[in-house]
From TrEMBL:
It is a multi-pass membrane protein. It comes from the Bacteria. The lineage of its organism: Bacteria, Bacillati, Actinomycetota, Actinomycetes, Streptosporangiales. Residues 16-388 form the Major facilitator superfamily (MFS) profile domain. It holds the Pfam family MFS_1. The chain crosses the membrane at residues 12-33, 45-70, 82-101, 107-128, 140-165, 171-193, 214-237, 249-270, 282-299, 305-326, 333-352, 364-384. It is found in: Cell membrane. This is MFS transporter.
């Protein structure tokens, strides 16, 4: 009946969904690049590990601002053109990072990366209803969001693998080439996507004010605690493994690859559970993360074991928080605010972790991350139990 019900059109729209999912994978992979390359970047650009961590903080802060700002200022612009433009910007940023002769130039490239990340993620997350029939919106949205989650756990080991052959700059160059390929793919597969006349997933003013005053605030608080705790510790996991666990390059690469595989498992196992009870799912996830961070410092176990537990926990966090927002009725602006909180938390965590690493020790940063995730588990648990008791 509708255009999306015609078999050929349906296949074309699912190809568009896949392209957007690969796009979200590419932007988040680009954001995560410095994590496994931090030691090499710091040595090559002549700065400390903590200062090199600003290459994580800068794009996070910029993305946090650009997500809601672009959502508000581009209401009348075709979403297809915005996504293509942001992917072109990402290609330029990654290639500039690969060629950066010093730290200030690298930071400038990472600022451009942040603009692309914030805008692309915020618009892509809500494209499901625009691309597929209504009955398939849930599946399309989960595929698009899986690009974010899988990138969060696979981007780091992928960068480690590429850089092991030709240095850290090769990882940025590879990400730039991937963005150029995605630019062509998006231009080919995306249909015109005029902005919706009415953004409102919340259907009434009462529902909107209830959403803004309750669930949105809670999700933003939990996002800030969980993601800043994760990145305070995870941004410096390579220096920790080298200095404290005395791991060589091969073990570091293997550990991060195993972490990524565990994270993919965590991502896809969390979806069904989070759809039923996001707060319970989040409590389990951040509990696993807390245990893993503490175990790295306290327990004389191979770091592989702790990183598997960490990956299982963190792998599903993004999907759980996003599903929580969707379940509560957040529209495009709600998603943009979530993306902003997520990215400012990456920046905050990486910055605080860098100060602790330089000022105290690389082991202390694990305790900082564990403390923040423990508080997140407590907040989610208290809220969930009070809501269950009150119902």
């Amino acid at each position: 009946m509708t255009m999306t019900d015609v078999p050929g059109a349906v296949r074309a729209r699912w190809l568009a969904v896949t392209s957007v999912a690969v796009g979200t994978f590419t932007i988040v992979t680009s954001e995560m690049l410095p994590v496994s390359l931090l030691t090499s970047i710091a040595a090559d650009l002549g700065v400390s590990a903590g200062t090199a961590g600003l290459t994580m903080s800068a794009p996070g802060l910029v993305a946090a601002v650009s997500a809601p700002l672009l959502a508000v200022t581009t209401r009348r612009v075709d979403r297809r053109m915005i996504l293509i433009g942001l992917m072109a910007l990402l290609a330029v940023a990654n290639l500039a990072g690969a060629l950066a002769p010093n730290h200030p130039v690298m930071l400038a490239a990472r600022v451009l990366t942040g603009v692309s990340i914030g805008g692309f993620w915020a618009f892509a997350a809500g494209l499901g209803p625009r691309l597929v029939p209504e009955r398939s919106v849930g599946r399309a949205t989960s595929i698009i969001l899986a690009g974010v989650s899988v990138a969060s756990v696979l981007g780091v080991p992928a960068a480690t693998f590429v850089s092991s052959f030709a240095g850290w700059r090769s990882a940025f160059a590879a990400a730039g080439v991937l963005a150029l390929a995605l630019l062509a793919l998006l231009a080919t597969t995306l249909p015109p996507l005029r902005p919706p006349a009415e953004p409102g997933t919340p259907r009434t003013p009462d529902k909107r004010s209830s959403w803004l005053s309750g669930p949105l605030k809670l999700v933003l608080v939990l996002t800030t605690l969980t993601i800043s705790g994760h990145f305070a510790a995870y941004t410096y996991v390579r220096p920790f493994m080298e200095q404290v666990s005395h791991a060589g390059a091969a073990l570091v690469g293997t550990a991060l690859l195993v972490y990524g595989a565990a994270g993919v498992v965590g991502n896809f196992t969390a979806g069904a559970q989070a759809a039923k009870s996001p707060w319970r799912t989040l409590v389990v996830q951040v509990g696993l993360m807390t245990v893993a961070m503490a175990a790295l410092v306290l327990v004389d176990l191979p770091p592989l074991v702790a990183l598997v537990v960490w990956g299982l926990g963190y792998g599903g966090v993004g999907v759980t928080l996003q599903l929580w927002i969707m379940r509560a009725g957040g529209g495009e602006l709600g998603t943009a605010l979530f993306v902003g909180a997520f990215n400012v938390s990456i920046a905050l965590g990486a910055f605080v972790g860098g100060r602790i690493t330089d000022g105290v020790s690389v082991s202390a940063v694990m305790w900082a991350g564990a403390g923040l995730t423990l508080v997140s588990a407590a907040v989610a648990g208290i809220w969930g139990r009070s809501r269950t008791t009150g119902s």
